[in-house]
Amino acid sequence: MDAVEEQHYILTTFGEEKAKELYDSGDAPHVQ
Hints:
Blueprint: H1 3-14, H2 16-25
Helix pairs in contact: 1-2
C-alpha cells in the first residue's frame, strides 16, 4: 500500500491521537 493508504490504515486502526504519536516518534509501522 502507498503512504496515504498506510496513514489511513493507521488512523482507522489506532485512532488519530495514536497515529500522530506514532508518526511523531518515528515509530509508525512503515518505511519512510
